[in-house]
Design the sequence.
């Protein structure tokens, strides 16, 4: 057997493992065909003190605030605001929340048009927990801005004990403590990352001129990442319905560091809304030289100039939610030990051929039997930890030979505990393949 075919097989098997452990499968697709059956319309007083009247579905449809634009594959959901009347009680708008809540997932928002960059407006597409009093359960602001903002702002809002590092993404950190009552930050600020782009393509009118685009949010136990793709740069895997974040490069925002994600974020609903003035657009009115020249206050401007809000609308092509087929899901569905056995069978078939082709070479089945036997006798978790010990002895010596050499063992055990056997198994497998590539003989 020659080195090159063996390693090609190993790499192919590694790819098979990775695909099985990290693939995202479509869980829910919100489009024009099911949009209004999938969301609830909020029609109570705005909790952020905005100059806005949120309408229920019947009222919004009757007054033209919501509609379906186009047909077939080109259909999109229109959600606008009143742009004809001067109502002293507030401008009519909509706020919707998905009937279904989520724990983890890949959320892909395809936005053809958004209401941003208009003085007085405060549009947002976000995830909010239904678990209790805000901010218990967390809030993830994916797409948000106020007044004439040109850059998107992405923010987490949490209870105490969550902060982020300032590396691993292309955006600009504005605040790093996600606690809404953090000292040294404005009230309710949370941890925020701004996404500046040339020509303002990340938000508002600049993004609309580019035909909109996609915002993708990947929420796992480890971190929360947000990616942005202008219309002309949407990855082919997203368009094909097979998103692969591993191919997308650096995110524009990554919320990770001093935050236990699963403790702070759970049971989140998808929300779209367009507010006016209130705790953000109203409070920052005088910070915009453009807006403050239009009227003394945000409320005065919004009430008396309905025509300027004609373009303050959402046009949403779709929101798609994907769930990861990870090791935890496989553990629940089949048991991780059984899954490892299945992968061993696949690898064995690739390396040695199908069973019917191996009748004359039964000795080659020994490796497979040994693996199966160890898994069945010890359990996969114990077996993998034993392999960590073996690797440590091979490369780092025995514990009594020096404390420093025991680091690899500790690191491997910690990864097992923090990430689960599946992720650890993949990383260790990749390292094994790399080692074989470097050290295996040319052939035998």
Sequence:
């Amino acid at each position: 057997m020659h080195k090159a075919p063996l390693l090609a097989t190993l790499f192919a098997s590694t790819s098979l493992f990775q695909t099985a452990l990290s693939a995202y499968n479509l869980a829910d697709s919100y489009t024009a065909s099911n949009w209004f059956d999938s969301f609830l319309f909020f029609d109570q007083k705005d909790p952020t003190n905005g100059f806005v009247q949120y309408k229920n579905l019947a009222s919004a449809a009757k007054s033209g605030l919501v509609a379906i634009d186009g047909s077939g594959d080109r259909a999109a959901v229109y959600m606008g605001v009143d742009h004809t009347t001067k109502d002293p009680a507030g401008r009519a708008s909509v706020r919707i929340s998905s009937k279904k809540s989520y724990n983890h997932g890949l959320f892909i928002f395809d936005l053809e048009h958004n209401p941003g960059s208009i003085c007085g407006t405060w549009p947002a597409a976000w995830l909010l927990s239904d678990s209790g009093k805000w901010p218990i359960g967390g809030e993830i602001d994916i797409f948000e801005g106020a007044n004439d903002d040109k850059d998107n702002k992405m923010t987490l809002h949490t209870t105490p004990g969550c902060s982020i590092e300032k590396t691993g993404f292309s955006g600009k950190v504005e605040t790093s403590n996600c606690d809404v009552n953090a000292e040294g930050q404005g009230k309710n600020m949370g941890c925020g990352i701004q996404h500046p782009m040339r020509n303002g393509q990340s938000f508002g009118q600049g993004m609309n001129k580019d035909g909109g685009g996609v915002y993708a949010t990947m929420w796992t136990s480890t971190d929360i990442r947000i990616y942005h793709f202008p219309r002309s740069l949407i990855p082919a895997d997203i368009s094909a319905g097979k998103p692969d974040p591993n191919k997308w490069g650096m995110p524009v925002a990554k919320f990770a560091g001093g935050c236990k994600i699963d403790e702070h974020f759970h049971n989140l609903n998808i929300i779209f809304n367009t507010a006016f003035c209130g705790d953000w657009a109203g409070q920052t009115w005088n910070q915009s030289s453009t807006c403050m020249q239009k009227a003394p206050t945000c409320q005065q401007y919004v009430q008396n100039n309905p025509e300027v809000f004609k373009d303050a609308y959402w046009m949403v092509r779709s929101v798609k939610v994907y769930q990861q087929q990870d090791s935890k899901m496989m553990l629940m569905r089949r048991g991780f030990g059984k899954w490892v056995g299945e992968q061993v069978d696949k690898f064995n078939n690739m390396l040695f051929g199908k069973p019917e082709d191996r009748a004359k070479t039964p000795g080659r089945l020994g490796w497979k039997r040994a693996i199966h036997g160890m898994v069945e006798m010890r359990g996969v978790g114990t077996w993998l930890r034993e392999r960590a010990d073996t690797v440590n002895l091979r490369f780092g010596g025995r514990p009594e030979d020096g404390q420093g050499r025991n680091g690899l063992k500790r690191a491997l055990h910690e990864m097992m505990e923090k990430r689960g056997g599946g992720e650890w198994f993949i990383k260790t497998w990749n390292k094994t393949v790399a080692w074989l590539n470097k050290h295996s003989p040319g052939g035998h």
